[in-house]
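Page 47, continued from p. 46.
Same chain as before, 212 aa.
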Amino acid sequence: MTGPDPALDRAADALRSLPPSCGPVRLVAVDGHAGSGKSTFAARLAARLVAPVLHLDDLATHEELFAWTERMRDQVIVPLSRGEAALYHPYDWNLRAFGPPRELPPAPVVLVEGVGAGRRALRPYLAALLWMERGPEESWARGRHRDGPAQSAFWDGWTVAETRHFAADPSRPFADTLVRECPEGYEWLPGPSVTAGPHQIMTERDGARLRK
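Result:
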């Protein structure tokens, strides 16, 4: 999917207009099942926003697929909340070790992309939670196809871990917006939390508007 996407542009404008949620930063989560298209969507949205993206794969490890909350808090949330650049150590999935530090600036909007980005511990710091609206089985099949047979054993373990995570700490019920990938562009739908929060992004197929 390339080319103009007016709905994506309007959604970016709506996100920019949200109140800061983590110090001066509007922290926007892109959550969904592994293989649901989060990374591609986050990259396209980040290009519209001129915003940095934190990939949660950089904070997780083989042994701690979802036990990265403390690293997220100490290395990212705390400095951003002070208006300072975050400095985190991305995990190398080939070397199985954390690499040299990488800087994440306190930009007006910062995207956090990955499974569990909308988890309970992070929601107080989020300006918006976007959920990729694709079911687990379809998402996992896409992910397996993308990664190939060499990663089959990893995916077997991952699907069990992801299922347990979302059963204990679901994100979708708290999403402000559901994002559905279409042959061209994305369809934007109000999320389950749309009537619960004081400032939600109301999204529709032909645009987006901010509701305060």
